[in-house]
Amino acid sequence: MHLFPNFWGLFLTMFRKILFLWVRTDVSGATREELGLDPDKPVCYVLQYSSLSSRLVLEQEVRRAGLPGAEAPLPVDNGPRQSFFFLYRRVGGLFSRRQTPKLTPLVHDLIRYGIDHEQGDVQIVPVSLFWGRSPDKEKSLVKLLLSDTWSVAGRLQKLLIILVHGRNTYVQFNKPVLLQQVVSEYRDNEERATRKLARILRTHFRRVRQAVLGPDLSHRRTLVQGLVRTQAVKEAIRETARKDDIPPEKVRAKARKYADEIAASMSIVTIRFLEVVLSWLWNRIYNGLSINNIQVVKDVAQDNAVVYVPCHRSHIDYLLLSYVLYKNGLVPPHIAAGINLNMPVVGPILRRGGAFFMRRSFRDNPLYSTVFNEYMHVMFTRGYSVEYFVEGGRSRTGRMLQPRPGMLAMTIRSFLRDHRKPIVFVPVYIGYEKVMEGRSYLGELRGKKKQKESVLGLARTMRKLTNSFGRVSVNFGEAIHLSNVLDNCHPSWRKEAYDNEYRPPWLNTAVEDLATQVATRINGSVAVNPINMTATVLLSTERLAMDERQLVGMMDHFASLLKALPYSETMTLPEGNGKDWLTYCEGMGLVTRQPQKLGDIIGLEGSNAILMTYYRNNIQHLFAIPALIACLFENNESLTRDKAVFLCSVAYPYLQSELFLKYSADEAESIIDRWIDVLVESKLLRTDGDRICRPQEGTDATVRLRSLSRFVIQTLERYHIALAILRKNGSGKISAAELEEQSTMMAERMSILFGLNAPEFFDKSLFRNFIANLQKNGVLSADEDGQLCYTDALDEVAEDARLVLNVEKRQALQQVTMLGA
Q1: Domain end marker among 485, 509, 524
Q2: According to the UniProt entry, where does the motif HXXXXD motif sit in this chain (predicted)?
Q3: Are residues 159 and 255 in the same domain?
Q4: Which CATH number belongs to the domain containing residue 505 in this structure?
Q5: DSSP code at position 436
């Protein structure tokens, strides 16, 4: 009786070893911690379809992970004699027609055991297996044979799939379903309990397959032709033909050309090729890749169309995010790329990697606009994951740029037309310790013309591959459900009808709200690293140099502030301490060391001094509120707590808008109050009754408080420049554009005269944003001629600013302003 089972076990072991001479796997979730297994309850694994190869892969991976075995009997009395089962078995012989999959007998056995043994719980762990993760892209026989798709593979097909894709196999373990939770509702009805378990597992496997493979893809030619046949594009063709007096056939050909120019052509072969190339590339140029909070994406990708919205710091962003998602078992997104990247050689590769191309501006081309809008609508309604950069272009200063509304508006309008498929935005922070384009950014900030992307430029970039660019962090932020945004903006939106042309009057408000949430949550997922910590402290000194021990101590101290009142749950801090970070930064060649008997001096020299402002700006928002509080005591020995909170609250809305701070205006006062407590506890401030006082002069605390204030002082100085110029001209005497231009010139002049090394100090867009916020907050208004008018409220804002800036700075700003008169 025991001979046959033993022989079968030896047979399976032999086949498993033979199979894994060829098969190579990527595995996700195969640890007790990730699965949340209870050690006191037995584990039973479930695979979707009956397959010997899948069974062998399962046993191999549970052995490697040290999980309870899949081949051993389930350790329960009077229960199933196996620790795994298939949800479905196929009916039919080797050559007969396959029929609808049927539940396996072991599903019934497990349910029967759960009903009969109320105290006997079992942890049912679903395991999904994908040979090659290739979506069904074409209807050709070759693709059907060589791809693991949404359809159920036959035996011959499965053999070919394993031969072709076996070295690119993905296995995903998922959190268990508890048997007693399933049967408790139907303990007196075995059939209904069985259907419930089957439904739960069937839904689970479908959701995982959706997240890993993405929706079924149609052929690109069919997609392009379908776009031209949509009602919206037909109407645009007729209108363009009438307006420009062109034959409709020619306009239709132009629309087809536009669609062909835009559409991606995702190829699993290209994605696998890029995976190999990028794995080599990351290992060559980076010291490591840190991925945080990926579970957010895995959770939302199963039931929603996902829009990834990363910050944009480098061209590497495109490749990096797709690589991270693919390596974690998620389908790479379709990526909105600028038409400038559709270069020879590079363009076709990017298109097959999922890129679709868009022109920089198409406001004056309604036909192109309609085709592009319809393409995006197809992406969302079919459930594709999409990626685009809300900033539009790459940030040259290291800060989050003001979001551009175009793509967000398209997404909202598409969702209003058809909201059957929910859309979820996933903010992504990509943090570099050393950005590859850093030197070219410096040139552009100094006025050098931006270099146009070209194959030759790419070849020049390849020479940088011998350099080290440190570590990279990819942090996923808190997801934003688009339906929730619309509910808050216009609760009755579901009851209204929308077509492709209709723009509801509340659309701009919804876009603005969504843009702010996206930018804020990207910043909330910031990765603090040794480079930006070192840059933040060193740039707070007047001479860009500091004693080594003092520098290390300050970095440790400021890191402790971030831990005392964390900015968000999704931000990450570096391992180690200030000494480790300085050593690392020195090894990256970003700081200099000057030996000295009393202690080595660490400093910034040449272009590195400006480059480090880029990395400081990555994390400036984390210190914005405590630095603002510290600024109050640059020019004041003490203030009442109420006065300190009030002054910070006046400046907060402008900092919030510029740095995308997460706290609302209503929350600001309580957060400022809490930060005052933190600064007091850390001895940077002290209390005397109801007054807050700066520390005694000459102490370490005084030096640290002054250093902290300089994290944000240049931003306040920029605000003061705009206010000084406005007041010098007088109410109703200058337009917003003129104020922006004069403020920029004054800031640039001050930067030269006083040696300020922050390029964003005279960034025109920051002045534009500040002026717009003064108008939004009712401090300024424009008359019928476009001239800016103000009341006494502006004088109060300016006087409050004087309390923040020290005498030297106020005089310097007044001098520069008068020189420009």
Answers
A1: 524
A2: 311-316
A3: no
A4: 3.40.1130
A5: T
Strand bridging mode 355-358 / 788-790 = unpaired
Q: Write out the two tokens for 407.
A: 């793509």
Give strand ranges (E) for 353-432.
355-358, 386-387, 423-432
For residue 716, give the nearest of 615, 819, 797, 608 by alpha carbon. Answer: 797
Contact 484, 440 (CB under 8 A): no
Facing residues of 594 across strands?
601
Domain boundaries, position 796: 713-819
Whole-angstrom distance, CA of residue 250 vs CA of residue 168: 46
Task: Please name the helix (run of DSSP H) or strand (run of DSSP E) that holds residue 88, with its range, or none.
Answer: strand 84-89
Q: Answer yes or no: do 177 and 270 share one domain.
A: no
Tell whether 693 is covered by a domain. Answer: no
User: Does 152 reside within a domain?
Assistant: yes
Work out the average pLDDT over 72-90.
Answer: 77
Asked if residue 612 is part of any domain, the answer here is no
Q: Looking at per-residue confidence, does 147 or 668 come out higher?
A: 668
Q: Do residues 17 and 145 both lie within one domain?
A: yes
Q: What is the mean pLDDT of the chain?
A: 85
For residue 780, which amino acid is it? L
Confidence of residue 535 (pLDDT cuts 50, 70, 90): very high
Domain final residue pick, 524, 540, 555? 524
DSSP assignment string, 474-531: EEE---EEHHHHHHHH-TTGGGS---SS---TTHHHHHHHHHHHHHHHHHHT-B--HH
Tell whether 232 is covered by a domain: yes
The token pair that represents 359 in the structure block = 């022109």
Tell the residue number behind the tokens 């250093």, with chain if given.
707
Find where tokens 């939770």 sit.
Answer: 181
Q: Are residues 401 and 455 in the same domain?
A: yes
Q: If 0-12 CB within 10 Å is exposed, 13-18 middle and 19+ buried, where does residue 552 land? A: buried
pLDDT in tens, 12-39: 778 888 888 888 888 988 888 889 999 8
**Phi and psi (nearest 5°) for 234?**
-60, -45
pLDDT in tens, 241-251: 999 889 999 99
Do residues 307 and 376 both lie within one domain? yes
- Whole-angstrom distance, CA of residue 277 vs CA of residue 473: 19
- This prediction has a pTM of 0.78
> Mean per-residue pLDDT for 325-345?
88
Beta strands in 566-629 (DSSP E): 592-594, 601-603
Q: How far apart are CA 386 and CA 356, in angstroms?
A: 10
Q: In this structure, are 312 and 181 located in the same domain?
A: no
Number of domains in the chain: 3
